[in-house]
Automatic annotation (TrEMBL):
Pfam family name, one: Sterile
Biological process annotations from GO: long-chain fatty-acyl-CoA metabolic process; wax biosynthetic process
A GO CC term attached to the entry: peroxisomal membrane
Protein purpose: Catalyzes the reduction of fatty acyl-CoA to fatty alcohols.
Entry-linked CDD domains: FAR-N_SDR_e, FAR_C
Keywords: Lipid biosynthesis, Lipid metabolism, Membrane, NADP, Oxidoreductase, Peroxisome, Transmembrane, Transmembrane helix
Membrane topology: Single-pass membrane protein
Gene behind this protein: FAR2
Name listed for the protein in its UniProt record: Fatty acyl-CoA reductase
Localization of this protein: Peroxisome membrane
InterPro entries, per the entry: FAR (IPR026055), FAR_C (IPR033640), FAR_NAD-bd (IPR013120), NAD(P)-bd_dom_sf (IPR036291)
SUPFAM superfamilies in UniProt: NAD(P)-binding Rossmann-fold domains
Thioester reductase (TE) domain mapped to chain residues: 15-285
The species this protein was found in: Macaca nemestrina (Pig-tailed macaque)
Transmembrane recorded as keyword: yes
Length: 425
């Protein structure tokens, strides 16, 4: 057994955001490789008419967890869903549950966040900043806690070009922002938001930067590490290749291209496409959890989980690859044959949007109307173009992330763990 997998044996692990993309893959790997772990506590809220239990049932019965059931048949006994809403005071956790969490937790993986680029400042601060502070406060009351792993994003400092594995200060103290949100009304908050976020491209990256500052300021004597993944994509190898369950990041646009909706994108072909498979991120998370708990570094370490400096790809190569894949394996019921181009020119991009996107959508909707059906293509197209414009900032620039800490950690792993973490079979 690998040293890292053995480390998680017998542990009580608390995961926030376990129902999200990264959280599910983290849980899967933990149960599959450390089936003797004691318990995984997950903080969950009811959603879309589903109770906590129904949500957990759905996750455990999904294709992602098929292998887990073979290795850890009693997985449902080892997962303990705790009612929690991270936007509420004390997360609205009951006294009994809180007591259990405080007295039993050994490791925390804090993944929960709002990842919407256009969220309100109030909600994004509540989730990405205040909730992080609250969780740190809880962590400081956990006598058995060995490590607190905070998941941030490589783009939390995307206002810089070269980013080191350090925490950069934000112009306004997070505490001042948290305090002012208590008395300012929503309209004023939205008015001051652009002034606060300055050269950050959106509320998401800005509040993730504030979240990191809070981690640094409230770290007390805790054993903390921060991981910054870049753009997290589908699984590379584990538990099987190609698993993804959302349309965030590049996923929505890739599907739109495959369906023939999206035929041009305002992107810089030579800009680095820094994607990282979700199973690689999870492997680093587990290694960081182990290293932080066992080696207890003197200062809090930040780890970049990026691909650009090791195995760089650019958007042109990525686009060619995406199109080649759709040639081989076309999507069902496509609107048009996939074909697309990148342009970094504003005028050309507007032209393609009019000619290749909006006009065909209007024509198709006319056809639907004439044949007595409900028009829908213009709505779909507007949605795709809105998403593409939100992502534009990230596909027209390149960043350099240093990876000294991540490389140091890799060199500390046993040969077995290096094999399992870097190139799992
Ligand atoms: C000669 C040869 C030349 C060849 C040249 C080759 C060229 C080839 C060109 C090919 C082109 C195509 C290929 C494409 C390949 C490349 C693609 C590149 C894209 C890369 C993008 C990179 C992005 C990087 C971002 C990095 C940021 C930092 C990373 C992070 O930390 S992660 C977190 C990232 N967060 C997100 O991604 C969230 C972004 N989304 C949003 O903020 C919002 O959704 C929104 C975009 C603002 C849209 O908001 P709306 O309110 O308008 O919509 P809403 O969200 O309500 O959703 C509408 C409907 O969609 C459903 N839906 C939304 N999200 C999801 C979800 N996650 N899962 C499932 N369903 C979802 C929602 O339910 C709504 O549905 P409805 O209710 O039925 O309407
Ligand atoms: N995906 C990516 O490309 C990248 C992600 N990251 C970071 O990784 C982490 C995980 O992201 P990802 O898994 O993609 O995001 P998801 O949106 O898939 O998951 C977010 C998780 O947070 C939970 N959550 C949100 N609001 C609340 C709340 N009020 N109370 C309780 N739980 C809540 C969600 O629960 P629910 O299911 O109930 O909504 C969900 O489990 C985030 O910190 C993100 O910043 C960093 C870089 C890239």
């Amino acid at each position: 057994m690998s040293m890292i997998a053995a480390f998680y044996g017998g542990k009580s692990i608390l995961i926030t955001g376990a129902t999200g993309f990264l959280g599910k893959v983290l849980m899967e790997k933990l149960f599959r490789t450390s089936p003797d772990l004691k318990v995984i506590y997950i903080l969950v809220r009811p959603k879309a008419g589903q109770t906590l239990q129904q949500r957990v049932f759905q996750i455990l019965n999904s294709k992602l967890f098929e292998k887990v059931k073979e290795v850890c048949p009693n997985v449902h006994e080892k997962i303990r869903a705790i009612y929690a809403d991270l936007s509420q005071n004390d997360f609205a956790i009951s006294k009994e549950d809180m007591q259990e969490l405080l007295s039993c937790t050994n490791i925390i993986f804090h993944c929960a966040a709002t990842v919407r680029f256009d969220d309100t400042l109030r909600h994004a601060v509540q989730l990405n900043v205040t909730a992080t502070r609250q969780l740190l406060l809880m962590a400081s009351q956990m006598p058995k806690l060995e490590a607190f792993i905070h998941i941030s994003t490589a783009y939390s400092n995307c206002n810089l070009k070269h980013i080191d594995e350090v925490i950069y200060p934000c112009p306004v103290e997070p505490k001042k922002i948290i305090d002012s949100l208590e008395w300012l009304d929503d309209a004023i908050i939205e008015e001051i938001a652009p002034k606060l976020i300055r050269d950050w491209p959106n509320i998401y990256t800005y509040t993730k930067a504030l979240g990191e500052m809070v981690v640094q300021q409230e770290s007390r004597n805790l054993n903390i590490a921060i991981i910054r993944p870049s753009i997290v994509g589908a699984t590379w190898q584990e538990p099987f290749p190609g698993w993804v369950d959302n349309i965030n990041g590049p996923n929505g646009l890739i599907i739109a291209a495959g369906k023939g909706f999206l035929r041009a994108l305002k992107a810089t072909p030579k800009a680095v496409a820094d994607l990282i498979p979700v199973d690689t991120v999870v492997n680093l998370m587990l290694a960081v959890g182990w290293y932080t708990a066992v080696h207890r570094p003197k200062s809090m370490l930040v780890y970049h989980c990026t691909s650009g400096n090791l195995n760089p790809c650019n958007w042109h190569k990525m686009g060619v690859q995406v199109l080649a894949t759709f040639e081989k394996i076309p999507l069902e019921r496509a609107f048009r044959r996939p074909y697309a181009n990148f342009t970094s020119n504003n005028f050309t991009s507007q032209y393609w949007n009019a000619v290749s996107h909006r006009a065909p959508a209007i024509i198709y909707d006319c056809y639907l109307r004439l044949t007595g059906r409900k028009p829908r293509m213009t709505k779909v197209m507007n949605q795709i173009l809105r998403t593409a414009s939100m992502l534009e900032y990230f596909i027209n620039r390149s960043w350099e992330w240093s990876t000294y800490n991540t490389e140091m950690l890799m060199s500390e792993l046993s040969p077995e763990d290096q094999r399992v973490s870097i190139a799992p079979t």
